[in-house]
Amino acid sequence: MLQSFGKSLSDFPPMPKADASLVPDVESRLIHDEMSYNRPVLAAQHDRMMSTMTLEQRNVYDKIMTRVKEDKSGLFFLYGYGGTGKTFIWRALCAALRSDGGIVLACASSGIAALLIPDGRTAHSRFGIPFTIDECSMCGVTPNTPLASLLIKAKLIIWDEAPMMHKHCFEALTQLGKSMMSTYLLLSRPTCLFQVQNTIVEQVNDYVFNLIPGEEKIYLSYDTPYHKNIDGDAVDDIHTPEFLNTIVASGFPNHRLRLKVGAPVMLLRNMDQSLGLCNGTRLIITKMGKFVLEERVISGSNIVEKMFIPRLSLTPSDNRIPIKFKRRQFLIFVSFLYVAISRVTSRGGLKILIADDDGDDIDVASNVVYREVFRNV
Ligand SMILES: Nc1ncnc2c1ncn2[C@@H]1O[C@H](COP(=O)(O)OP(=O)(O)OP(=O)(O)O)[C@@H](O)[C@H]1O
């Protein structure tokens, strides 16, 4: 498992090193894993997809396939509105190349988008992109490692929802590409932004939560300040746990979680992508224990009936919070609202709540585009 992320036990001292003679040849295993698809099944899937492909999709597909077959490097940027069939093209390209024994590395900026592409991973984990990124950041892929060999052998790299990431991520990948990859290709898609007022979301969530029958449970987090110095012999006691409990941040669980069996929740972190447990995965609570929650996955490609979610410690990544502390809590929030308009298949199945500044319902909305978000793309 460590090897598939370009790591080994020696990266985690004082873990003992494994006996080299007992460790299988990682390089060949990583590459073997990427080439061991059921080729006839993929070929049949590819044929089916080609038979329904639209002319526009076919045009994109042909351009990319021609470049890959010519063994030339290239960079493509695919733009299209939500639901217009971009993922369909990724799937067809994956099926075409993998059924022919080629290696395709499919990734996406978010874990939830990575689930939609066959064997997709997050770009961060695939290329070792650091979470805190600046203009000097480098991908954590070391030359002459099995992961580096895999990248070199890749015929195609797909990167879905690319504009969601900072330009420094692409610069880091470009550096990596220059240093080791001869052929690489980047694909992308636009991001649609919806501005949802948190207070309205909370009101709707509270209203619907109260309609769910059954007993509710309150789970309080355990918040601890970080030690003042690296030796850790003095605790930062300026900030009391009571104060830390009041901190609310986006992408961070609340101190007080109100839960009920049957309540839909959303994961706040990538926990296990192979099981479909990513940031944004939606789950339904089926049992509430003291230390663990039993849940059913209701979104993504893996519809799993029983998952167990433990409490985990998390530090807020928002730079606007100057205090360093850890919160131990279930990394979820109750979520009845889910913005995925392109996934709705009938007009009748779509309900949109629009509220004005006073919170009153209205039936018009302004289309606001924040151009600044594209500045770093
Ligand atoms: N040529 C096609 N033949 C059959 N089904 C298609 C075709 N193109 C797209 N679809 C289907 O339409 C739906 C939406 O397509 P897809 O998910 O590829 O769109 P998208 O552009 O990736 O959407 P989003 O931006 O919201 O992720 C999917 O169910 C997909 O399988």
CATH fold type of the largest domain: Rossmann fold
Beta strands, count: 13
Rg (CA only): 23 Å
- Let me know the average pLDDT: 79
Small molecules (ligands, ions, cofactors) in the structure: adenosine-5'-triphosphate
Task: Please report the number of helical segments.
Answer: 10
CATH class of the largest domain: Alpha Beta
- Adjacency order of strands in the biggest sheet: 10-9-8-7-13
Number of domains: 2
Question: Would you tell me the structural class of the helices and strands?
Answer: alpha+beta
Put the structure in a nutshell.
With about 375 residues, this protein is an alpha+beta fold. It contains 10 helices and 13 strands. Strand 1, helix 5 and strand 2 form a beta-alpha-beta unit.
